Amino acid sequence: MNFIEQKLKGVFVIEPQVFGDSRGYFMESYKKELFEQYVGPVDFIQDNESRSSYGVLRGLHYQKGEWSQAKLVRVTQGRVYDVAVDLRRSSPTFGQYIGVELSDENKRQLYIPRGFAHGFAVLSETAQFCYKVDNVYAPQHEATLRYDDPRVGVVWPVKAEEMLLSDKDRIGLGFDEIETFE
Questions:
Q1: Which pLDDT tens digit goes with each residue over 4-63?
Q2: Which of 62, 97, 131, 147 is catalytic?
Q3: Is 131 annotated as catalytic?
Q4: Distance between CA 17 and CA 14 in Å, rounded?
């Protein structure tokens, strides 16, 4: 596996080694020892999966305080544009984002540590999105940063009129209204 730290400290793109032949392919999607060597210890406690159609935008979500979550995300079918926004006030990249295309073809993964908002937009007809988390879902501590907040300025590769948003995502808070991290 190749671990590539991004401009947002602690965020990694992970490229697995894929072994393919006429029968298909094999790859290790997670190896604790190797992950901890590059990223550090993370105690993942749950795996989640979602399936969405083209134009679905989920995010930008995060959980506040002690309920914050680190995530290791990947796409097992289709393509998404995955985004992490740095909400750590002490970070030199506070308020900045990174966007990465994840797909079943490139098999890339994105590790997002605690202290970030996260979201994705589906670029293919459908996409199956899988992720590990290190903390339980706590809806009473969840928050949503507006996907189109001008302060952050995410450039989504889906036209606004094609986006499919939940009510929660449509009325997310602006960057200046959200609770950030130390």
A1: 999 999 999 999 999 999 999 999 999 999 999 999 999 999 999 999 999 999 999 999
A2: 131
A3: yes
A4: 10
81 is catalytic: no
CA–CA gap between residue 110 and residue 107 (Å, rounded): 10
In this predicted structure, what is the pLDDT of residue 182?
A: 82
* Pairing relationship of beta strands 57-63 and 97-103 according to DSSP bridges: unpaired
Burial label for 90, CB within 10 Å (0-12, 13-18, 19+), is exposed
Task: Give the whole-angstrom CA distance, residue 103 versus residue 78.
Answer: 6
**Closest C-alpha among 71, 82, 79 to residue 53:** 79
Quick check: 23 and 10 in contact, CB under 8 A?
no
Q: For residues 157 and 138, give the distance between their C-alpha atoms in angstroms, rounded to a whole number.
A: 30
Write down the catalytic residue from 61, 62, 81, 147. Answer: 61
What distance in Å separates the CA atoms of residue 20 and residue 152, rounded to the nearest whole number? 40
Q: How many whole angstroms separate alpha carbon 4 and alpha carbon 114?
A: 18
pLDDT in tens, 128-170: 999 999 999 999 999 999 999 999 999 999 999 999 999 999 9
Question: What count of other Cβ atoms lies within 10 Å of the Cβ of residue 67?
Answer: 16
